[in-house]
Design goal:
The chain has one domain: Alpha/Beta hydrolase fold, catalytic domain (Rossmann fold). The chain contains 13 helices and seven strands. The chain has a four-stranded parallel beta sheet, sandwiched between helices. With 308 residues, the chain is an alpha/beta fold.
């Protein structure tokens, strides 16, 4: 049996052989010691105990402003706007973050649509160009951005770019087993060090429990919960999809990109070799992390006409 201190000793060999070697010691030192899944009640009672190192409180930072947006059903949605330092950054783009976690599953799409329209209608207040807007997100945020690009197309609202990283595009949190997925990466990395099957199952039990699934599915269009099932893939905004090689969600994210290609849209798909689902959050200063950030900057600059 492998020593407990041996790097990667709990990572299946077929996954270990593909991982970026910079990641393996980090798994041994940090991720392998993380607490197991806990209930939402416990998380809310002690958020500081389980907060990720990247979950920084930005509410007191300079040029950060909180707003409230009214969603379609009258619910109040908190939105945070980040205005960059003009001495270092120059003109836009300005990030707007939507807090979509504290509500019933599926409501995030409705709230995100309200937030997008609020941004456009508040262009003067926010000092932005309403005709130069992009959407994007990581993981579930990428899923939301896919739904938004369809909603924007349907409403005649032009977007410059949809920038989605490691996105789920199916209703995988309702699966009973990894083999329920038609995509091979879902089974191949089911026992990976980051976002394994038991984690996805935990998320499903928390936000999409069996006893509420019928109710939730009746509330929203099917393709909101699985954007790869959207009825029309024509006329969508340019899209940059980034996936991680060692991620269960890899293949379904790339499959969505291929549907965009079939619809005649401008699409870039990049797979980061050896990377895991949370590659952008890991405190590792390596070439892959720098490349990830530089790719986003370059794509946004080009989309918004700021490329030199």
């Amino acid at each position: 049996m492998a020593s407990q201190e041996e790097p990667g000793s709990t990572i299946p060999p077929h996954i270990l052989s593909k991982l970026n070697p910079d990641f393996v010691p980090f798994f041994r030192d940090v991720l392998s010691k993380r607490p197991r899944d806990v209930t939402i009640k416990v998380l809310r009672a002690h958020p500081e105990k389980y907060r990720a190192p990247t979950a920084i409180d930005t509410s007191k930072c300079e040029r950060v402003t909180d707003y409230e947006v009214i969603s379609e059903d009258g619910a109040t949605v908190p939105v945070r706007v980040y205005h960059p330092d003009p001495d270092k950054h120059g003109d836009g783009p300005y990030p707007v973050h939507l807090n979509h976690h504290e509500t019933i599953f599926g409501k995030a799409f409705q709230d995100a649509w309200a937030a997008l329209n609020w941004v456009i209608n508040s262009a003067t207040t926010l000092n932005i160009n309403p005709s130069s807007i992009s959407v994007g997100g990581i993981s579930a945020g990428g899923n939301i951005s896919f739904v938004l690009q369809h909603m924007a197309r349907n409403a005649g609202l032009p977007l410059k770019l949809c920038l989605a990283s490691v996105p789920p595009t199916t209703d995988c949190i309702s699966y009973d087993s990894p083999t329920d997925s038609p995509y091979s990466s879902f089974s191949e990395f089911a026992n990976g060090p980051v976002l394994p099957w038991d984690r996805i199952k935990y998320f499903g039990q928390s936000c999409f429990p069996v006893e509420k699934r019928d109710k939730i599915r009746k509330m929203w269009p099917e393709w909101w919960l699985a954007p790869i099932k959207a009825p029309n893939f024509k006329g969508l905004c340019p899209t940059f999809i980034r996936t991680a090689e060692c991620d269960m969600l890899r293949d379904e994210g790339e499959a969505y990109g291929l549907k965009l290609v079939e619809g005649g849209n401008k699409v870039t798909i990049k797979r980061y070799l050896g990377a895991v689902h949370t590659m952008m959050y890991l405190p590792l200063e390596n070439e892959q992390r720098r490349s990830y950030d530089e790719d986003a900057i370059r794509a946004l600059r080009e989309a918004h006409g700021l490329a030199k």
